Amino acid sequence: MLRQIVREPLIHFVVLGGLLFAAWAWVAPQQTAGSGDGVIVVDQARLDHLKTLWKAQWKRDPAPQDVAAIIDRHVRQEVFYREALRMGLDQDDEIIRNRLAQKMEAVASDLSTLMEPPTEDQLRAFYAKRPDLFTVPQAFAFRQVLYLPSEAANNKLEVTLATLRSGGDVPPDRLSKLSVPLDWPLTPAQTLENSFGGGFADALSH
Amino acid sequence: MKPLHLLCLLGIGLLTAAVAPAAMAQTAEEDVPINPLKEAYFGEQHVHTGVSMDAFIAGNRLTPDDAYRFAKGEEIMVNGSLHKIKRPLDFVAVTDHSEFMGEAYSLMNEAAPGYDDEVAVAFREAPDLKTALQLYGKYVLTPLAGGGDPHPPFFQGAEAIKTTWRKNFEATEKHYKPGVFTTIHAYEWTSAPGGSNQHRNVFFRDANVPDMPFSSNEGSDPEQLWAWMKAQRDDGKKVFAIPHNSNESKGLLFAEASLTGVPIGKEYAKTRASMEPLIEMMQIKGNSEVVPNFWPKDEFADFENAVSIQKFSGRGFVKENFVRYGLARGIKYHADLGVNPFKYGFVGGTDNHNGTPSNVEEDNYTVGSHGLADRTAKVRATSMLEGEMRIADMNPGALTAVWAVSNTRGAIWDSMLAKETFATSGPRMKVRVFAGQGFAKSYDSYDAMVADGYKKGVAMGGDYTGTETPQFLVWAMKDPIRPNLDRIQIVKGWYENGEMKDTIYNVVASGDRLQADGSVTPIDAPINMETGEFNTEKGDPELMAVWTDPNWDPKQEAFYYVRVLQLPTARWTLYDELRAGVKYPDDVKRQIVERAWASPIWHEVN
User: Fold this and answer.
1) Closest residue on chain A to B39 (Cα)
2) Which among B332, B392, B413, B414 has a CA at the least distance from the CA of B577?
3) Model pTM?
4) ipTM score of the complex?
């Protein structure tokens, strides 16, 4: 009877299995003990962070039922995350490799930037490259004298220009040629472009 | 310095101080200087971005933020091509459809709930016009006409609507630079019961806006919209609405009864007049002023009438569709009820669905206005805008000008409410009108003329309350980069012995062509059909006159509005033919007379 039992494959299986479990329990470190691993804590700091992320996406404060959903989702994600780590699912995963490498690159370049403050030349180069960050928009103040296209061949144009350049006045017949002002106080280029169009402001700057 | 030939009014400039720094720091609205004589600010009050689901399906991925940048003159990628307008705008209101704002949240935000839904993916990845049109018909046209589920399956509910409205709000806040560039919080209420276009755009004066816009899903009758607006006003918010496309209203915008069939009474008239100061005279889908069928004596009525609208949704033209009829019906209501429900001033808009505000230049209409449906000359020359009209009958859209004391939200909104506005078919001509007594025949300066106009008269959009025959001081200035002006007309409508009547007076014409009998010798200034260039010799850059109504009757209810006509210019269809080698059908116009319409001045008899 005993011999029969000893020869039974099922018994071999059970006994060997039991030995294996016992050996594993003795060799392996105590992972499941302690409070940290089986408990997920959502403290105020964590909740605030989750709410901030949610607000960034939805552009408003979460309602109470939204907060419940945020916590549920977070806890669920944390459970799966921990189980995945325990099963080693992060190993040999291309996406995770890429992400970690990216993060490390960012950290490394941040560090090197911090360790090397920009040089005078770099600052000057940046200043030259982005003048818009350091200057107010162009503006113009000018006086104009209006001639219609049909009057464009008028040789008075040159005479008028010479007069004005030597400090003379606008010819009387031009004073109220049209309802467009002759004297323009300092006016931003965009306002001029809105008023005249056709690259007027750009032409003034050349 | 050589003369600047860029300008048709040629100027020689004398620079006294070039490139000096200007005080351009952000100014608060109340610190912006006031110009009591007012300035004309040009802008857009009707444009859709990718947030409007119909635009999204047609391929538009631009946001309100992109639309504002485009309006400021930036070059933006539109339908796969870089595009910009020639001149920046002064103000913009983005008016996305409120009906589908929730859907936009799922469609446009990666990782948002609903983003990966198969219908949302289909919208996003519609590979061609045909697929897009099928989706558009099923998920936009059908629900907007009042059939089926108003929302596709990926719709996430009211919170998603609030989120999108909030995002539009934030972009609108971000781009507001008081004194420089004005943005207005707005949206479109999109109701078309039985195919009758009842659409309205809704505008808020400041940043005090509701959490969520009222859509036609909550109420498809304008009276429901007004009730909601009333509740907003009672809550301290400042809001008005502007209807558009009366030409597609099946006669129901200027009707004898409310949509529910109740004859229009005093309460209805009061509410409507209070909620709706303005109407959109013209946009991409046609000019709603008049059509030649019903106004055969108006020789300029045949202008961007979008006649193929009539082939869709049973939208045949009736006289009751048109603004000139509506104004006349309004004064008849005033005579009968003591209130005019249709006391409308004028604005123009595009209703552009590319997210490109006031993309109205005929010679720059290279990317169309409705996504995949009209983005190339080839498709424009041969296709229909599904459910709406033939694309060749569309136009780039119209423009709004507002006479305001500053380029700020408050000033522009207030002047819109006061109807001191004019619409143009695209060009930036300027128009002023005053009705009063004692105006001079000419003035030493423009400022003196305007000051006298305000002192002795009421401006466009106002009521003439005098008992003597009114004088009308009218003035118009050409667009600096467009051709000269042909003439100024006054359209008068009145109510006499139970009949509504209207007529047109030529008030002043360029080159002394106005005859003693009031007719005008036609200006012979054709465009160059080989290049599209306009005539630069004829017409006048500026026109001014003081006109007295020869048939004034103090006991007669009347309205008067000014129409300014420009010399002929090439239509966008000619540029497509010249540049892209396409051929439009023979009945399509290649040449147009662009124009401006100033808000009416009314004479009411109490």
Assistant:
1) A195
2) B392
3) 0.82
4) 0.71
